[in-house]
Design brief:
The structure holds 2 protein chains of 2 kinds. Chain A is of the alpha+beta class. Chain A folds into 2 domains: 7-67, Arc Repressor Mutant, subunit A, CATH 1.10.10; 81-164, Glutaredoxin, CATH 3.40.30. Chain A is 45% helix and 11% strand. Chain A is built from 7 helices and 4 strands. Chain A has helices at 7-17, 29-39, 46-56, 60-67, 89-93, 96-107, 149-164, and strands spanning 81-86, 120-125, 137-139, 142-144. In chain A, strands 2-1-3-4 form a 4-stranded mixed β-sheet, covered by helices on one side. In chain A, strand 3 and strand 4 form a beta hairpin. By secondary structure, chain B is an alpha/beta fold. Chain B has 3 domains: 18-229, NADH-ubiquinone oxidoreductase 51kDa subunit (Rossmann fold, 3-Layer(aba) Sandwich); 239-333, Roll (Ubiquitin-like (UB roll)); 338-432, NADH-ubiquinone oxidoreductase 51kDa subunit, iron-sulphur binding domain (de novo design (two linked rop proteins), Up-down Bundle). In chain B, 41% of the residues lie in helices and 12% in strands. Chain B contains 18 helices and 11 strands. In chain B, the strands form 3 sheets. Chain B has a 5-stranded mixed β-sheet with strand order 8-7-11-9-10. In chain B, strands 3-2-1-4 form a 4-stranded parallel β-sheet, sandwiched between helices. In chain B, helix 16 (358-375) packs antiparallel against helix 17 and helix 16 packs parallel to helix 18. The longest helix of chain B is centred in the last third of the chain and has 25 residues, at 402-426. Classes of the chains: A alpha+beta, B alpha/beta. At the A-B interface, helix 2, helix 4 and helix 5 of A face strand 3, strand 7, strand 11 and helix 15 of B.
């Protein structure tokens, strides 16, 4: 895969950089890492981070130290669907442990593992700010809330169907 | 019914879109504000008694008046939308359903502070909200409320949404500033405070989403009128996000005059505890504030009714009281285990420590390990004292308040629920099959007769 944004994405990159004062383009780093992760396979491989460094005219190490700090940046490949189930206090009070156990059992994977077909990665997460709608998970750019075992069943079916098409 | 200011238009369909918001009186307060001087707006906010709604409760008007204004140096308003304190999801609600109220608050505040470029730092996980905000910003700009020479005032303002990437620590204002500069979220040593040297070393004010939204009703009705709502130094209204074991979890606006009991049991708010269970404990202001048993939640140690406001919730200090904090109201019923709940919070703080200060970096992991042992029947009696000792050595010994935030929940759990911890240690097998239950945590408190 060639690591290079399309012209359309480059326009977005320029728009993001323009939000910050002249010479402070490093401020665009986190937004650009989001773009890069979405664009280049769902995780940040070293060449991807080096590419982002070149776009911002900063040192690669400045990108590595930031990418490794923030939970949302994946430092290794993940499945097509990353199931990030919140396990902090308020979700625990509403049964998040059972939801995590159910997913483990159903998909045959442990925390941080990916199914052999490359579709699902399970990642127990810390508070995602949906405590009143617990238990819940983050799936891509959206939240799935008020989870039950039945909802997990239909969600996995839905995602398998989407991946097949 | 209590007074509603921020959620007054909650029932209006389409209020998240410009046309509907405008038809319902939206941006008329901005019109009023642009006829006032920036200094007058700061004065109204001071008079209102508004306290920061992110958790610390610092007077907003005072924070604004600290902002340095050196000649020729741009200054910035940065909105802290990094809402990450477990139990807290009120800012999400405001941004998702009332984006124009929020933008109007940002606009008036930017004008008051002289910020031509204002940034909204939103937590990365709220990934769909930047789209909502950017659409609302575009609508507002289209209608002339943002951009150059707003309403012919000569004032220019742009609002930019900046998405983080998953780090609780970025809710601390100097960590947020570092992150906005494209760095790791390591809090800065203070001084200098952001008001003197903040983002890009320019004078900066960092305020919470709800705080900035509250500026709209304050300017609309005037600071003095706003200060009449509420009680004492708890002025205005406060958003509470309720979760855990209640019938009606969600976001509520209160005017800080209702009792805790009314808040939990009335149908207007939480609607009581589900499944006929009893209230065991509560963390009323986000996971960092002290957990209190049912009896100390509903009444103070003096036997007086406790109310939903800053002063009453903290009555008795940490010995018998708690805090209003961020308004993340977490309710535990009698089927819940305080040891397990505290363990999850310790895991959270361990995960979220930035690693800069050793008491927090090492202490949070150590506390989590010990709590895990106790929870899983492998604890020793001496572990409880060790936990107490560790939290004491974290508190106050770190650059930022994350250390305190990690220490307090452990301290309060041991202070009020020590017998539940001891029961776990003494009954390692039984504690794996059942919970300690309600025990005496809702019993009436013995109030010593005054002399």
């Amino acid at each position: 895969m060639e690591i290079r944004f399309s012209e359309e994405k480059m326009n977005k990159v320029r728009e993001i950089i323009a939000r910050y004062p002249e010479g402070k383009q490093k401020s665009a780093l986190i937004p650009l890492l989001h773009l890069a992760q979405d664009e280049f396979g769902g995780w940040l491989d070293v060449p991807v981070m080096d590419y982002v460094a070149s776009l911002l005219d900063i040192l690669p190490i400045e990108v590595y130290e930031v990418a490794t700090f923030y939970t949302m940046f994946n430092m290794k490949p993940v499945g097509k669907y990353l199931l990030e189930v919140c396990q902090t206090g308020p979700c625990m009070l509403n049964g998040s442990d059972e939801i995590i156990d159910y997913i483990k059992e159903k998909l045959g994977i442990g925390p941080g593992e990916t199914t052999p077909d490359g579709l699902f990665t399970l990642k127990p997460a810390e508070c995602l700010g949906a405590c009143g709608y617990a238990p819940m998970m983050q799936l891509g750019k959206t939240y799935r809330e008020h989870l039950t075992k039945e909802k997990i069943d239909s969600l996995i079916e839905e995602l398998r169907g989407a991946a097949a098409n | 019914m209590g007074i509603k200011l921020l959620l007054a238009n909650d029932h209006i369909e389409g209020i998240r879109y410009y046309e509907t918001y405008r038809k319902n009186g939206g941006y008329t307060t901005a019109e009023k504000a642009f006829k006032m001087s920036p200094a007058d707006i700061v004065e109204e906010v001071k008079k209102s008694g508004l306290r920061g709604r992110g958790g610390a409760g610092f007077p907003t008007g005072m924070k604004w008046s600290f902002l340095a204004k050196p000649e020729g140096v741009p200054r910035h308003l940065v909105c802290n939308a990094d809402e990450s304190e477990p139990g807290t999801f009120k800012d999400r609600y405001l941004m998702e359903f009332h984006p124009h109220l929020f933008i109007e608050g940002l606009l008036i505040s930017s004008y008051a502070l002289g910020s031509n470029a204002t940034y909204v730092y939103i937590r990365g996980e709220y990934a769909w909200i930047p789209d909502i905000l950017e659409q609302a910003i575009a609508e507002a700009k289209n209608a002339g409320w943002l951009g150059k020479n707003i309403l012919g005032s000569g004032f220019d303002c742009e609002i930019y949404v900046h998405r983080g990437a998953g780090a609780y620590i970025c809710g601390e204002e100097t960590a947020l500033i570092e992150s906005l500069e494209g760095k790791r979220g390591n809090p800065r040593m203070k001084p200098p405070f952001p008001a003197i040297q903040g983002v890009w070393m320019r004078p900066t004010v960092v305020n919470n989403v709800e705080t900035l939204a509250a500026v709209v009703p304050i300017i609309q009705m005037g600071g003095e009128e706003y200060a009449k709502i509420g009680v004492g130094r708890s002025t205005g209204t406060k958003l509470l996000s309720v979760c855990g074991n209640v019938n009606k979890p969600g976001v509520y606006e209160i005017d800080m005059t209702c009792s805790v009991e009314e808040f939990i049991y009335s149908d207007e708010y939480c609607g009581g505890i589900p499944k006929g269970r009893s209230l065991k404990a509560c963390i009323p202001g986000g996971s960092s504030v002290p957990i209190v048993p049912a009896n100390l939640l509903l009444k103070t140690a003096k036997g007086e009714t406790r109310y939903m406001n800053y002063e009453s919730l903290s009555d008795g200090g940490f010995a018998t009281g708690t805090m209003m904090g961020s308004g993340g109201f977490i309710v535990l019923d009698d089927a819940q285990c305080v040891v397990r709940h505290t363990m999850t919070l310790a895991r959270f703080y361990n995960h979220e420590s930035c690693g800069q200060c050793s008491p927090c970096r090492e202490g949070t992991g150590w506390m989590y390990k010990i709590l895990k042992n106790i929870e899983y029947g492998k604890g020793k009696m001496s572990d409880i004292d060790l936990l107490w000792d560790i939290q004491r050595k974290i508190e106050g010994n770190t650059i930022c308040p994350l250390g305190d935030a990690a220490a307090w929940p452990v301290a309060a759990a041991i202070r009020h629920f020590r017998d539940e911890f001891e029961w776990h240690v003494k009954n390692p097998e039984e504690s794996q099959t059942r919970n300690f239950g309600l025990a005496h945590y809702a019993d009436p408190i013995h109030v010593p007769a005054s002399a």
